[in-house]
Structures are given as C-alpha cells and as structure tokens.
Write a structure and sequence with these properties.
The chain is an alpha/beta fold. The protein folds into two domains: about 40-65 and about 330-460, Lyase, Ornithine Decarboxylase, Chain A, domain 1; about 70-330, TIM Barrel (Alpha-Beta Barrel). The chain is globular. It is built from twelve helices and 24 strands. It binds pyridoxal-5'-phosphate.
C-alpha cells in the first residue's frame, strides 16, 4: 500500500491517515495507557508530562533534546513479567539488538533474563556489564572467526549456528581449545509473520537459517553431530518475524520444528532437549495495536509445543523465547523540541523537531507508525493533522507520518514520541553529522544518563584529516 500516492491538492478527507489514527481524538491531551510507559502521566496543574516521577520539562532542561528516556521501573516490570510468565521450565532471552547498554545488560541480569547478542560489539557490552556468559546466546548469519573465538573463550552458553562454514569454524575453534561448545541450529520453518497475519508457505528466500523443507537443516544437524566431541547440539531455533500479534504463526512453526525433532530422533536416535521459538511479539505503537498479555502468550506457546510434542511422541523440550521490542520498546520515549511549524492549507501541518531519521529510522525504513504527544503543556486548541519531521536533508525524514497534535503547537514546545525504546538508539546513525542523543534512565523522579550524548569531539576524533 503506497502512502505517497495522494493526488495533488487533495481535499482534507483525502489526506486522512490510512494507518490507524483515523479521526481526531476526542481529547488531544489524553495518553493511551497501552502505548505509553507506566510511569508517564500528565500533570493536572501544569499540563506537562511527568516521566517516572520527573517533570519532563526539567529533564529537557537538564539533558537537552533530543533525548531517549527510559522508565526503568517499567522496563524491569516487563522483563519480570516475561520471566514469570514462562516460568522455571523455560528461558527468556532478551534480544539485545533492540537496545543494549551496560546498564541495560545489568537490569536484564538482575531481572533473570538471558541475553541474545549478535555481534562482537554486543558481546563486548554484555561482558563489560559482567553478564553471566552461560546465560548468553550468540546469533548471526556471518559471525567472524574472531567473534566466534571470543564467544567460545568467554564461555557463551549457546551459539546459534547459521551456516555450514560456521559449523566447521566453530568446531575447529572448540577443538583448538579443547572444549565442547553448546550450539543450536537455526532453521527456516517457511513461516513468515507480519503484524496481523502470517504466511504458512513463505518461501525460504532469505539469508537466515537452514531450510527445513529443503533438507538443509537436516544436513546441518548431521554435520554438527559429526563434531560431537566439540559441539553439543542442544536444539533447534527459529524466528519467524516481528511485531506479531497472535500465536498462529508460532503454531505452524512449532509444528514443523517438532516434525524435525522427530525426524532427528528417527535418524540419529537422539531427542534434542531444547527448542527456541524466537522473538517478535508485538507492542502498541498506536491505538489500533492490541498485544495480548504476556501471560496469555506464554501459556499458548507452551501449550502448542506440549501438544505438538505429545503428538510426535517426544519428551517436552525446554522452551526458550527471545523478546526484544516487547521488553524494551514500551518503556522508552524520545523527547524532542519543536523548531519550526509550517501550515500547508488544505493539506496538513509540518512540525519539525531537532532530531529525525538519525535517531529513529523505523518510519523511513519500515513505514512504522508512532504516537506523539505535546509534552510541555496541555492544549485546548483544536487537533490538527500533523506530520512530525526531522531536520535531515531528506524529504523522507519523517518521525511520525500522521499525528493529531494541538493546532497551536509552536516552536519551543516539547514533543514526546512513544514506544521508541527498541530499535531507535540501536539503529541510530550520524547522518548529516548529527550527534546521537543520550539515553536517560529515570526512576522515582531521579534521572541518570546511561549512554551520554555524542559530542562533536567524538565525531571529529574519527576524522584523521
Ligand atoms: C530480532 C530478533 C529477535 C527479537 O525480535 P523482536 O521483534 O524485537 O522481539 C529475536 N530473535 C532473533 C533471532 C532476532 O533476529
């Protein structure tokens, strides 16, 4: 669906957003609880937002804008919710690629999460945080020899192998060190999930994993088992997509994975003890997104795997899942200051903020939708259909494509964009030599910088003239 196909000079109705914001909200100052972090509220007196007990205007003054804010209690509560929902007979791996820093790795460790990394850099952050290596998983379709050596030397709990080359490299590294490395084989089950639907017959034309249907997965398993002195095969892994709202796609994946486990038992006489269903559980970016409670998702996934294994006559493997966005997304917001406002009569209002696609690439990259709110005050002005844009030299530099903001939004106002805790700082760039914003953790009204703002010296330090 193209969003750029509006005819020239459309009537107002023609430019109504297609994406779920629909008509103007009855109360422009209201915050939808499922979208915003638990610790965000609008102060009745000032109309400004409070964030985890701190006045958001104070945070802007102290730390500047743009800034990423994380509600620490909300982050930890979501992490605990996942750990408790899956219980003692399953492991919850936080997907560090969604957002990782030393502080975050410590929170993850303290709340009982395991942690997935997918590069030497992410591994370095985890190790710097003192994250228990046996609770780490290492992903990636092209891990370098240096990365694999570092992972094996650090004692990473499991490495999810994704190519024949990697299996050989890893076996050699483990042999060289005289260790037996635990591995899982990443498979492509031919299921692709997107938001509200899934495709059970997705073609396997992608870079990740070994195809189940094509037999590559069976070959990879045989190859790992050949190196049994140095590789311990613990199970199969699959990851079917992201921003998924129901468990139907997981059901098909679990069915195919269990078939594969049964085939492995038939061929090699072993029952693999672990099964990983990956991540991808969705969150509410806008009011039309309706994620199921974590407890319900956990119950369904466990049920599905138990049923499939019973049907195949297999013992129940230890289940693992890998949420990233579902833990890190909702507790984070981005705070911007408005610099310019352009009203285009009959079209919409363009509000420019002091960041953009360098701190949030998801709108440009995935057509992602977000919810934005005036943050430094409440307003009685009428809602205006607004596009929140950044300051980059790129007309696709859009932060929120379709938003309803008060018609009196003006330069100097603060805007908060919700649910930016995942895949925004971690995908940030220095396009136009903008400086990456800091990450501020706030708890009980106290704010702490966990990743500082980049400086021009940081950037110029790389430039050797
Ligand atoms: C990205 C990814 C995840 C996390 O996805 P979310 O949508 O953030 O939950 C989990 N597992 C693997 C292998 C991934 O690549």
């Amino acid at each position: 669906m193209s969003r750029s196909a509006h005819p020239a000079g459309p009537r107002y109705a023609d430019v109504l957003p297609e994406g779920g914001h629909g008509a103007a909200p009855a109360d422009i100052n209201r915050l939808d609880r499922k979208i915003w972090p638990g610790g965000v509220a609008r102060d009745e007196e000032s109309g400004a937002l409070t964030f985890a007990g701190a006045d958001i205007r104070e945070l802007a003054r102290e730390f500047g804008t743009p800034a990423y804010l994380i509600d620490e209690d909300d982050w930890r509560r979501r992490a605990r919710e996942w750990v408790e929902a899956f219980g003692a007979d399953a492991d919850v791996f936080y997907a560090g690629k969604s957002f990782l820093s030393v502080a975050i790795a410590k929170w993850a460790a303290e709340e009982g999460l395991h942690l997935d990394v997918c590069s030497g850099g992410e591994l370095a952050v985890a190790l710097r945080a003192g994250f228990p290596a046996h609770r780490l998983g290492f992903h990636g379709n092209n891990k370098s020899v240096a990365e694999l050596e570092r992972a094996v030397d650090a004692g990473v709990g499991r490495i999810i192998v994704d190519s024949h080359e990697e299996i050989e490299r890893l076996a050699a590294i483990a042999a060289d060190r005289g260790v037996r490395q635990r591995v899982m084989v990443r498979v492509t089950p031919g299921v692709e999930a997107h938001t509200h639907e899934f495709i059970a017959t997705a073609h396997e034309d992608q870079k990740f994993g070994f195809s189940l249907a094509g037999g590559a997965a069976a070959d990879a398993v045989a190859r790992v088992l050949k190196h049994a002195d140095h590789l311990e095969l613990t199970g199969l892994h699959s990851h079917i997509g992201s921003q998924i709202f129901d468990t139907a796609g997981f059901e098909v994946a679990a069915h195919r994975l269990t078939e594969a486990l049964a085939a492995i038992k038939g061929e090699h006489g072993i029952e693999l003890p672990e099964l990983d269903l990956g991540g991808g559980l969705g969150i509410a970016y806008t009011e039309t997104d309706d994620p199921a409670p974590v407890a319900e998702t956990a119950r369904r996934l466990k049920e599905i795997v138990a049923r499939e294994c019973d049907a195949a006559g297999l013992a129940h493997p230890r289940l693992s899942v890998e949420p990233g966005r579902a833990i890190a997304g909702p507790p984070g917001i981005t705070l911007y200051e408005v610099g310019t406002v352009k009203q285009l009569p009959g079209l919409r209002t363009y509000v420019s903020v002091d960041g953009g696609m360098s701190d949030n690439i998801r709108t440009a990259l995935y057509d992602a939708e977000y919810t934005v709110s005036l943050a430094n005050r409440a307003s009685r002005a009428e809602a205006a259909l607004t596009r929140v844009v950044g300051k980059h030299c790129e007309s696709g530099d859009i932060v929120v494509r379709d938003a309803w903001l008060p018609g009196d939004t003006a330069a100097g106002d603060l805007l908060a964009v919700a649910a930016t805790g995942a895949y925004c700082r971690s995908m940030a760039s220095n396009y136009n030599h903008l400086l990456k914003p800091p990450v501020i953790a706030v708890k009980d009204g106290e704010a702490r910088t966990i990743v500082r703002r980049e400086t021009e010296d940081d950037l110029l330090g790389l430039d050797l003239g």
